[in-house]
UniProtKB/TrEMBL annotation, chains A, B:
GO CC term, one of those recorded: cytoplasm
Catalytic activity from the UniProt record: deamido-NAD(+) + L-glutamine + ATP + H2O = L-glutamate + AMP + diphosphate + NAD(+) + H(+)
Protein's name according to its UniProt entry: Glutamine-dependent NAD(+) synthetase
Cell inner membrane recorded as keyword: no
Pfam hit, one: CN_hydrolase
Residues that bind ATP: 325-332
Domain CN hydrolase: 4-255
Pathway: Cofactor biosynthesis; NAD(+) biosynthesis; NAD(+) from deamido-NAD(+) (L-Gln route): step 1/1
Function in brief: Catalyzes the ATP-dependent amidation of deamido-NAD to form NAD. Uses L-glutamine as a nitrogen source.
Binding residues for L-glutamine: 129, 185, 191
InterPro entries per UniProt: C-N_Hydrolase (IPR003010), C-N_Hydrolase_sf (IPR036526), Gln-dep_NAD_synthase (IPR014445), NAD/GMP_synthase (IPR022310), NAD_synthase (IPR003694), Rossmann-like_a/b/a_fold (IPR014729)
Organism: Glycomyces lechevalierae
Name of the gene: nadE
GO molecular function: ATP binding; glutaminase activity; NAD+ synthase (glutamine-hydrolyzing) activity; NAD+ synthase activity
Binding site residues for deamido-NAD(+): 402, 431, 547
């Protein structure tokens, strides 16, 4: 069998920043050429970033993407890498675009060589569920392209094509010896395992290796987790790239030789086109050893997703630093440590805002954590400000609890406006789900790192992060006292979360069924949860929709996180016409 | 030609409140029976409300919709109206639904008679643009149903079917003598005229009358504007219902008699089924005179949309009252008058929050408006509270401007929490578009009535509303001074909007092209706008995305209002399993 040296560029593009993304691709082409690769693939929409959302409906952006692709082909050739075939994901349309023409916008892959665009493939399966809205933005393609490279017929596909499967069936009919599948596949817990299973199934179906390339990096509430891999027809993993980090994965892959005549033919499902680049098997002087990425444990995987999502939100939006309120509780503690791991201690500012109901141990615990982590920490009491409000308006009960939270929020936002910090909201998924947060109070901020993390998982992450520090001989970042004490909002005397909510194990169990799943109230009672608790929690979830909608984006780690509130990507660097 | 007496129930259902909506349909059936109607049609998803959003993905909600439909058929018969055929819009699926089954969810129409469901039609064209996400929720149907009623073959279609047109082509091939089209069509400026044009085109194509029924009422940021109508094959309007109000439109309509044999046949586009209810032309003792709704001027139409959207948001969410800050400026003035028109003066509370930069004329103008309109008005100075913050933290410049706005926001939210008012945000589309509002300050609140109204239109509405009062011999609600003075945020000495923004006529012109349209920066310069102004405004719009995303819902009156931030409908009364 011929051997192809395949380079997969697992890169981190920025939505809308065409020049930055083109530079990433040029650098990958140079590195792949140095490595002696016969083919370089880059991620889904590697030139435009993903998801482009409503930018897809701007004719100026579609035109900019197409123009930039042509220039990129020329630049790669000018760099001396023209003979390397390079697969690039980008945004295209099946004709001229403009204010007056209809849509025919395509999620496209182009193969570049010798300064030219050899062909343009349009994604066949368009996902339109969960975070995906591709029926809204794109039109599906129906022509599969194969390139004969070193005597191997390589088929090119995009993301959902591997789940839907039609292009793989057609690739098998066309005698493909390798299928490239470029992705921008967002992270969810357990998804990497599902990907591996489907790639194995497709490789077996085609009877040839499948090269699965994923993007890496955070984009608003999505995080692409990398983990690119090449899987053989027998299901064995030939090589794999790291999760949550950029990497150029170069692998020598034995592929079935091209057997069919040079002629385009039509399947009943999609038409196919064959482009011959080189008939002779490529010469390889020294085989390179395949690399395999370490597998991550469940908690490390989640932590890395949250860390990368936060880091990229801060950096892609150009914030110099972050600020968050440090209450002495578990949520703000985990958020602060995540921030330090993401962008470094010197860019993390914390503030404690004690009221008359704050305990001394909370203040001490907050200061202890800030010191262990080397964060900039200040204390700003809120009681005099609360009293100034109370001199003006009569508030009591829940309204007074909310007032305290909002005074803190105003202080954080004022410091943000004055100094340029991004405010982080430290709320977790359990409390957002039932509405146990104050709108414009603790929920305010530009990013909510753990908004998709259930409270029970917050505790697990805290313990895992401390354990990791111990195993490295480092100081545990989170004081044990913060992990051990019972959770409280400290907005009235002796308040405990357990006064008004069931045990978090019970609450989270109900939320997994009712929010993440499709369980109705009766289903949950059948599962053994008390009917009155189910009724109350489901009612709270239904009523909390408005607050959830107004909360900040935060890294998504489950199938149904809250919010699909995009219209334009926030992290959007398009500066075109 | 036979004559059918058609009743169209232009009603205002509530999303998720199946019992309430079923009662509306029962009452319409009773009224239609009394009126001697031969057929009653109700709106798209009249049983479930529209749009149901993610409720469509809850098996318990789909099951509740199906069960309620069957009970509704029995109830209509028990009410003594069983012989009346009633078309009902609801949510269905093409098989059992449950946690483990795939989707086959349908946007459906059922024809009920004699306590039974005669047939179930599944909407053919599913819109998936703008506010519509129907490819996400539903699967398209491919079978058209006709009912022979009084010797006329009546075809039944749903909403987008009239725009896409395939079911109308099939209805023509099947010899339909009348086509019913039930809608939940949201308002946009100019849309009613486009509807009339397409209904005329379809009626001419089928060669028979088309009965276009629209829903009425506000649902979060959508407002359904009614305006149901029956249009003859020659394009003449046979009858029409009011805009923005419920109505049972009963009309005697001459329809071509059924001519084809009783047999189901297949078109190449959709299959068809014919259900025979009655062959003999219906007897009509006394023809009733058709009714025609008055046409609305442009400003009255927009005002009514905003008024109804606000009224239904307040009432469907169960708020006793609203509260808003009254600055003495034009935006809060128009918002306050809208609120009074929507829910009555006694439910409207206003508060003036002067700072050291507030002018006396602003305070006077606010008090004058409150008095003219009979609103509950109080004055709460903010300077002592601002000073309390400044004693704690050092803020200046823009941060200090934002601080003042946020202190006001906290006061409004505290009063809301204490007394149960819904806070209204008074921002307009021009300022939200460029980010000229304070996050968690003036932008806070549960509903933003004029968030989709450009500043120039805010002025036009103010003048129109005063003119309307004059024409009725009433006091002008808005003091002339509020309309005449130059706009200012009054957050620093002698501040004017024109210090930092171009004239609103120029700003709004750019926004119409750049936000509502697909104009790029170059297109706008070609249209004659100065390049530096275009560059600055487009940059502000791109950067303001985050704030827009966190702002309250507000009635949509243009093609592209901000925000498509729904996951579950906020106004959601589903209390099922």
């Amino acid at each position: 069998m011929p051997t192809l040296r395949i380079a997969l560029a697992q890169d981190n593009p920025i939505v809308g920043d065409l020049d930055h993304n083109a530079d990433l691709i040029r650098r990958a082409a140079s590195a792949a050429t140095v490595a002696g690769a016969h083919l370089l693939a880059t991620g889904e929409q590697s030139l435009t970033g993903y998801p482009v959302e409503d930018l897809a409906l701007r004719h100026s952006f579609v035109e900019a993407s197409r123009d930039r692709l042509v220039r990129l082909a020329e630049e790669i050739a000018a760099d001396g890498n023209g003979s390397l075939p390079v697969a690039v994901g980008y945004l295209d349309a099946d004709g001229p675009v403009g204010s007056t023409t209809g849509h025919g916008i395509r999620n496209a892959l182009a193969l570049l060589q010798d300064g030219k665009v050899l062909f343009r493939y349009y994604k066949h399966h368009l996902p339109n569920y969960g975070v995906f809205d591709e029926d809204r933005w794109f039109v599906a393609g129906h022509e599969l392209h194969l390139a004969r490279i070193g005597g191997v017929d390589v088929a090119f596909t995009v993301c959902e094509d591997v789940w839907g499967g039609v292009p793989f069936t057609v690739a098998e009919e066309a005698g493909a010896g390798l299928v490239i599948n470029i992705n921008a596949s967002p992270y969810e817990q357990g998804k990497h395992e599902r990907r591996l299973a489907v790639v194995k199934e497709r490789a077996a179906g085609v009877g040839a290796p499948v090269a699965y390339l994923n993007t890496v990096g955070g984009q608003d509430d999505l995080v692409f987790d990398g983990g690119s891999m090449i899987v053989a027809a027998d299901g064995s993993i030939i090589s794999s790239a790291r999760r949550f980090a950029s990497e150029l994965l170069v692998t020598d892959v034995e592929c079935p030789a091209a057997s069919r005549a040079i002629a385009n033919h039509s399947s009943s499902l999609m038409s196919t086109s064959l482009h011959v680049l080189s008939e002779e098997p490529a010469a390889i002087e020294t085989r390179i050893e395949p690399t395999f990425a370490p597998e991550l444990g469940r908690h490390e995987e989640v932590w890395e997703a949250l860390r990368l999502g936060l880091a990229d939100y801060v950096n892609k939006n150009g914030f110099p630093s972050v600020l968050l309120g440090l209450s002495g509780g578990i949520d703000s503690a985990v958020t602060a440590v995540l921030a330090r791991d993401a962008i470094g201690a010197d860019r993390v500012h914390t503030v404690a805002n004690p009221s008359q109901y704050s305990s001394q141990h909370s203040l001490d615990d907050a200061a202890d954590l800030a010191e262990r982590c080397g964060l900039h920490h200040v204390v700003e009491p809120i009681q005099p400000i609360v009293d100034a409000y109370l001199a003006e308006i009569a508030v009591s009960g829940l309204a007074l609890e909310n007032l305290q939270a909002r005074v803190r929020g105003v202080i954080w936002m004022s410091l943000s406006n004055q100094h340029g910090h991004l405010v982080l909201a430290a709320g977790n998924k359990s409390e957002y789900a039932v509405g146990y947060s104050t709108l414009y109070g603790d929920s305010c901020g530009g990013f909510a790192p753990i908004k998709d993390v259930l409270k029970t998982l917050v505790y697990e992450l805290a313990n895992w992060r401390n354990e990791k520090a111990r195993s490295l001989g480092e100081t545990e970042p989170i004081p044990e006292n913060i992990i051990m004490k019972p959770p409280s909002a400290e907005l009235r005397p002796d308040q405990l979360d357990s006064d008004s909510l069931p045990d978090y194990a019970v609450l989270d169990g109900i939320l997994v069924g009712y929010v993440d799943g499709d369980a109705g109230r009766e289903d949950l009672v059948e599962q053994g949860y008390p009917a009155d608790v189910v009724e109350r929690i489901a009612g709270l979830v239904d009523r909390a929709e408005y607050k959830r909608r107004q909360s900040a984006p935060g890294t998504k780690i489950t199938v149904k996180s809250f919010g699909r509130d995009r219209r334009l990507p926030i992290t959007n660097h398009f500066r075109g016409k």
